[in-house]
Amino acid sequence: MNVMPKPIPGERSPSPLRTKRFFRGLTQAQIAKQVGSDEAHISRLENDLLRDIPSTVRLKKQVATLFGVAVDELFPKGGQED
Predict the structure, then answer these.
(1) Would 10 be classed as within a structural domain?
(2) Would you state the torsion angle of the CA atoms of residues 71, 15, 46, 55, taken in this order, to the nearest 10 degrees?
(3) Which of 3, 30, 41, 49 is deepest in the core (most CB within 10 A)?
(4) Structural domain contains residue 6
(5) Domain range for 44
């Protein structure tokens, strides 16, 4: 049984992407390979460190499609072009 570890006090809760990835038993590298990206970009997505420029918006859409969910379910702060 996969149980998501509780965050350390003072740290942010895990992102929806990290949570879904964890429960599906996928690594960042596996997701990256499936969407044609690299592990560093997936890490930055999980940590909300990428601006919503067109390439990031496309990557968010690809990752959401991989998980079969809407972009805003994985990335609540955005993911659509303004």
Answers:
(1) no
(2) 20
(3) 41
(4) no
(5) 16-74
- CATH number reported for the structural domain that contains residue 30 in this entry: 1.10.260.40
Task: Give me the tens of pLDDT residue by residue for the chain, a chain 82 residues long.
Answer: 566 666 656 667 788 999 999 999 999 999 999 999 999 999 999 988 988 889 999 999 999 999 999 999 998 874 444 3
**For residue 29, what are its two tokens?**
């590298």
Give how many domains the chain has, as a whole number.
1
pTM of the predicted model over 0.85: no
Nearest-5° Cα angle at 31, 36 to 15? 125
- Residue 60 lies inside a defined structural domain of this protein: yes
